[in-house]
TrEMBL record, chain A:
Family statement: Belongs to the UPF0210 family.
Listed Gene3D superfamilies: 3.20.70.20
Organism encoding this protein: Ignisphaera aggregans
Record-linked InterPro entries: UPF0210
Name this polypeptide is given: UPF0210 protein ENO77_03850
Automatic annotation (TrEMBL), chain B:
Originating organism: Ignisphaera aggregans
One Pfam match: ACT_6
Domain ACT: 16-90
Cited SUPFAM superfamilies: ACT-like
Name of the molecule in the record: UPF0237 protein ENO77_03845
Stored HAMAP family: UPF0237
Database matches in InterPro entries: ACT-like_dom_sf, ACT_dom, UPF0237/GcvR_regulator, UPF0237_ACT
Amino acid sequence: MPRIFTPEEIGEVVEMLLFHDLDIRSVTLGLSIQECSSHSYADVIDCVEKKVDAFAKRLSKAVEAASKKYGVKVVTKRIALTPISIVLEPLARRGLDKAAEAGVEIAKSIDAVARRNSVDYVGGYAAFVHKGFTPGDRAVVETFPDALAATDTVASMVNVASTATGINVDAVNMVAPKIIELSRETPKGVGCARFAVMANAPEDNPFIPGAYHGLGEPEAIVNVAVSGPGVIEAAVKRLGSGADMRTLHDYIKRTAFKITRLGELIGREVAREMGVQFGIVDLSVAPSPKVGDSVAKIVEAMGIEVAGAPGSIAALYMLVDAVKKGGAMATSSIGGLSGAFIPVSEDWGMARAAALGAITIDRLEAMMAVCNTGVDMVAVPGDVPWETIAAIILDVMAVAVALDKALGVRIIPVPGAKPGDTVDFGGLLGRATVMNVSGFSSAGFVSRGGLIPPPIRRLDKG
Amino acid sequence: MAQNTAEKGSEENLAVVVVIGADRPGIVAGITSVLARHNINIVDIAQTVVRGIFSMIMVVDLSTGDIDLPRLRDELAAKGRELNVEISVNHIAVFRAMQRV
């Protein structure tokens, strides 16, 4: 029999898996719970709990089987649900209090189900309010601090802006004080790690906290998020400092191809095992707080001394572009956020760069022009006024709408913390240096409220 | 003489075993004894140094064997601990996906 793979080819793959933390960041099951919408308080809770329980069991089993079959680690298992606001709608019409109470109870029951079935996160405590609120949306926005404070696995997202409709400043003004409320209800404000404000949130995003099951999706679907910054960093380092930009881009592209292929292989196997449709691979290179699993370190391997230094935007742009091109060749099932993630505390190199002062909120805002992150996992002092948080959110939303892309804000006001303090959120959430926030007020701007109109780009769509 | 239901020689039954560690007598014997015990055929074997790391690479066919891939991995991992080498066992589809367009 002729040799199927050369030892070099096999060695490369095994080296990635064993030494460069190549793994599947998440297998996320998108699951519809639309049928659970009901006027009965008890029925809604019961229906959601039963459905999530049944699918969580199947998901855990299928992920375990696929991981063992191929010898590839799957770091987390997640479920993304239809936005809870939709199933709360009938109840919300009978009164906000009842719907609010039901929302928190649903969160608690799915949290118990998730923990029982070793599902790491459940997304979908979500509302879409980029143009306005329904009663169900209001119930979600009112209760997400309580729902997240009462749970460990539930994640929440509010979409406040879209290219098609513009930015709902009233929604931002409702959400910003709620973020502060949530930070006070959880130790070190860590609950805020499970909440994102988003623009253009994709329906098939496998990443928490933005994950939800969109209305265009089927009953159940498997989406996959790959990891692999360590693999790309190693490839860049192997190439050495003499390679020019095009060669560097090409190398990253080839590596991204391989990473994406692995994601698709595992995703398809999990979907097959579960007997549900396979959805998408999110091409994003997702970092973790582990040394050697960092997007910032890729930027640094390209020749930037510390991520955030001048040249970082160009380096990140090249990385994201190469990842997209390599990924697009690897799979025709693209989706999710598909950019590069630079969550400050969750990425070891970003956390280090923030501690050194090279990464600031200003630099993150510049970097979001070329990636799909926004201001993510950024710790700020707990006494920052809500109007300033609202203004930071508006800045990110404006870039998302102007550039027609998905961006989010995951900001953590840490009660009692001062700029420069270090906060350890634990596990995959990592450690953050509390960032300095401008002391100049934006209150006069945000308090105007209303809607910022959509960009002229909207008219391209008809 | 396939004992498993899947067709012999089909890729579905192929796994790649990679052994990495410092060279010493008995590694090949130790690993292959596990494979022989379960009647697993070695399709291809290569011993090489890849980027400074000593490695032995085998493509094995589980279709004649009496064990599935996850359990083979567990047994080889135990043997690896005994021999003080690192062993990875992956389905061939992983390499097909990542190394072929």
